Structures are given as C-alpha cells and as structure tokens.
C-alpha cells in the first residue's frame, strides 16, 4: 500500500471568471470545491490509476468536514487526524485568457499533540511507499520524524525540505526553483548531488515543460515529453510524485519510472482540476517520452 | 425598528497579499471572515451607531452557519430564513498597492417556498423603515412583494431595481453606473426623474468621491465630502443606506440626512472591512459636508 501524508490539507476552490483585473469586481461564473493539498492530490491520482493507496491528513472545522466528505465521495481511503483549527482553503482563479492565479491561505497552527497524533497515524500504517507532501503548518515537527525504513518520497520546499533530509527519504522532488533556493546552486545536477550528500537517495527535479531530471545512485537521466501541453499545471508535480510512488512500489528501473512520471504529469495538465488525470494521454504518452542518460560534466583534458 | 433584508447573504472573506498578479501563486498573509451581503452590512453599521435594527437574511450550509455565528458574536439581532443551498462567499483581495479586487460567487438558487418564507419573515416584523439590499438569488421573486406601507429603501441594480419600483420604495440608491444602466440616460437628474415616475419616492445617487445627488419630492440636492479619502470603498454604499434609513426613521430634513450619509460613507471608507465605520470621522465630517440645492435645468427663455 502507498500512504500519502498531508499535514496541511486544504479545500481547493476553483473559480472561473471572464478576466482577472486587479482592482475590479468579478462575478464568478463557476465554483468547484474539492479536497486538496499535495498529498491528497497524489492519493487521488493513484486512486484513479487503481493503485492501493491511503491518504493520511489533518482536518478541522467546517472546511475540514468538506475535505473529508469529498474524499469519501470519491472513494479515496483516508485516515483523518482531527485538529482544533480550521482547515485552510486554496483558491484557483481560472480566467478566459488561460491564466491560472492561486491564492493560498497559510493554514492553522497545530496545537499541542496534533503533530504527534499525525505521526502516530503514519506509524500505524505499514506503507510499502510513504509519500510526504506539501508545506508544514506552524506547530508541526519535521518530516524526518515521519520517514521510517520503507521507501519514501519527500515533496516539499525550503526549510521543511532541508530538515526532512535527515530522515533519509528515498526520493526528493523539488522543482528547479526550489532546488536552487535550498542549495544556492544554479546547476541542477550539482545541486541535486548536494541533496544526495545531505541524505536524499535520489533527486528528481521537475523542469516544467522540459520534463524531469533524475540524479540517482545508479545514474542520471533526463526525461522529456513529446509535446508541450497547455492547461492547468497546478497538479502536475503531484502527478509526478504519484508515478514515482508507483514505480518505487514495484521497484521499476529508473528510465521506466521517469517515462511514466512525465506521461502522468502531462495527463494532469490536461485534467480540469488538480488531482485529475487524462488516462488516454497517460497511456499514449508513455511510449513517446524521450529518456536519455545525462552526462553532466565535460571532462577536463 | 429598522429592518434590513438580505436575500443573497454572503460570508465575506478578506485576503491580504503583497501584490496580486494574474498567473502567479500568492501566499495569503491574513484571512478575515465575517457575515456580509449588503443588508447585513447596513445592519452592522446601524448596530455600531446604537440604532434599533434587525437583519433578516437567508443562510444555508456551513457557510451559512459561519454567517449566523458571526452575527451572533457581533450582537446584531437577526431572523434567519434557512435555505437548502450553500450560502455564497465573496472574496476581497487587498494588495499592498492599495488595490481592492473582488471575487463574488453567484449564490445558491432558492428552492420552492424559500422566497415565500423570507417574505413571511419580513411581514412578521413591523418595521419603521424597511431596507432591501443587494442582488436577488435565482428563484427569488421581486422586491416589490416585500415592500409594504412603511418607509423603505431599495438598494439594488438592473432588473431587480426596475421590478422593485412597482412596490413604490420611499428611496432608491443606485450609483451613477447603475442609474445609467437602468434608464439609458447619461444625465443623473433626468435619470432619477425617470425612476421617480416609475415609482420611487426619492432617488439618492452615489457619485463616489463626489458625494451624493438626491432627487426628491421636496427638492434636489448635491452633498459633497470635505476631502477625498482613500481606503476600502466596498462598504461605502451600505453606509449611505444606513444613514438614509436612520434619517427616514426620524423624519429628518433631506439636507441633514445627506450630510450624515456622506459623513458615514467616508467613515466606512476608513473602516478596515465592509460594515466597519470610523465613528470619529463620522462625527467630525458631518459639519464639513457641503450641501447645495441643485438647479438641474436651464430655463428656456
């Protein structure tokens, strides 16, 4: 079983407007709400692929109830850790020009004992692969406390990423900006090597439309999609993590894992909301992704 | 007692961000929620002034519960008409550059009987002044059905305004754009005369920073603030309506009513959220508002 952990779950609200203009009054023509937060999105994608997955998340207040109700409706198995604060909302504003604007609430502070309750819920499940995703709310401990001996993926940024490396995650998945921010290095291969030295087993860097760069103990690869897609990129990173989790659970070779991860990322861009994937694209694109071994250094003569 | 009616109440959410840029991801640094909708804001302002006021509103779902809880906490007396749909949210995004951007959800459709229940709730209260404010949700009837023989104020726009005139409201309060939209006339005095012919006793036009124009059965006046204020203009129109309601309840002369309305509108611009007023500004500004009789037509020789 794959277990995802979302310490700072959210109710994702998607607004459709004609245009978004600073200083104007906008009539929202369509409102959609669903359970969100990175780990919840990963679980939703894995559930859509028929994988055995369980989401562990915090939830509180009326917003938390809406999150749990949505997971129940979709059929994603979940362990909910109740919290005293009100679960945050994230609002995505889709405008007719194709722009995607996000407004992310910070989320409530965890009270005494709530982080420990989350850690207990994680320990109570024997995960084949553990996925820890997203920001940590105020009052949380470190992701390192959640990572055990099972294969694991850590998808977060900044201090939460750096502190989490002490737990020796099998894979971390920063994007290029997040990788540069935590290492101060512009070269992603050199930066990934730093994170491996600090505890990460492998580093998979998402490069947006250019695909993925994977720096692992058994080689370095670049995987590129066959075409550049336009759509809602919000859940693309979570789809990459879902594919990585599936690949780790089967102990697939890295080039196969990366091929599926790039294809699933594109399938998420084509999905209408974060956590949706276009399964036809996922199937068709897997054979078209170009995976090349990456030679990072020019040898000195 | 002044009674306000809000058929399409809302939970007002105010987000503070550094900047609002279309296509970007924004971290919201501050989230505030409160009961809203125009009639609720009018009641909140009147309550702050110590007036005897009661808000009648629809509320449904978790958002509706949050609206009612907030009114209870503030101490605004309310008659709540439960509805099956989920009360809408309106989101105001305040950016550091002073811009105010609104995202207004449309609100739920009223089910069979819910409009009738609202009308019964209005009839059950013997209002000295009845204030009907804001948009009508789908499934609603006409404001004309709510207006009885008591003095009344109708503050809405478009078809809801035009249809409401059949109920012969004592005062309607369009802004200049709304007035032009419903009459097709650019001259506000001529446009106001049209609305009076169609059933309005008086027309008070809000002109933004230029104050108010009142076209009444006993004269036409222009009331201008002493200074142009910058701040959150969202609740300024509701503050004008609150002052008009107070003036009607006391049968004050129009120049006095307008002086207070302009002062209270400025006090709302200085308040941090819609429905808040700066009482010191309200007191000080009343003596500074310039009210002049308005001579609208050049007599033909």
UniProtKB/TrEMBL annotation, chains A, B:
Keyword line: ATP-binding, Kinase, Nucleotide-binding, Transferase
Any single Gene Ontology cellular-component annotation: cytosol
UniProt-listed SUPFAM superfamilies: Ribokinase-like
PROSITE patterns given in the database record: PFKB_KINASES_1, PFKB_KINASES_2
Presence of keyword ATP-binding: yes
Family stated for the protein in its record: Belongs to the carbohydrate kinase PfkB family.
Protein name, as recorded: 1-phosphofructokinase
Organism: Amycolatopsis orientalis
């Amino acid at each position: 079983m794959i277990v995802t952990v979302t310490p700072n779950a959210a109710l994702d609200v998607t607004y459709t407007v004609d245009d978004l203009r600073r200083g104007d009054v906008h009539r929202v023509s369509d409102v959609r709400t669903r359970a969100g937060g990175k780990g919840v999105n990963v679980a939703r994608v894995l559930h859509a692929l028929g994988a055995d997955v369980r989401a562990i998340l915090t939830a509180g207040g009326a917003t938390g109830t809406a999150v749990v109700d949505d997971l129940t409706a979709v059929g994603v198995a979940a362990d909910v850790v109740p919290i005293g604060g009100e679960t945050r909302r994230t609002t995505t504003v889709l405008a007719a020009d194709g722009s995607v604007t996000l407004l992310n609430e910070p989320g409530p502070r965890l009270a005494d004992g709530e982080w420990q309750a989350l850690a207990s819920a994680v320990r109570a499940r024997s995960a084949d692969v553990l996925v820890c995703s997203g920001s940590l709310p105020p009052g949380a401990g470190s992701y390192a406390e959640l990572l055990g001996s099972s294969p694991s993926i850590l998808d977060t940024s900044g201090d939460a990423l750096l502190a989490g490396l002490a737990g020796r995650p099998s894979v971390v998945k920063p994007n290029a900006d997040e990788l540069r921010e935590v290492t101060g290095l512009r070269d992603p291969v050199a930066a990934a090597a730093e994170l491996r030295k600090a505890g990460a087993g492998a580093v998979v860097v998402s490069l947006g439309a250019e695909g993925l760069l994977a720096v692992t103990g058994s080689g370095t690869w670049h995987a590129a999609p066959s075409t550049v897609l336009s759509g809602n990129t919000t859940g693309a990173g979570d789809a990459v993590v879902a594919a990585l989790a599936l690949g780790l659970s089967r102990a697939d070779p890295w080039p196969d894992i990366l091929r599926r991860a790039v294809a699933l990322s594109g399938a998420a861009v084509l999905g209408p909301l974060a956590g949706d994937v276009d399964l036809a694209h996922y199937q068709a694109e897997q054979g078209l992704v170009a995976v090349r071994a990456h030679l990072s250094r020019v040898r000195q003569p």
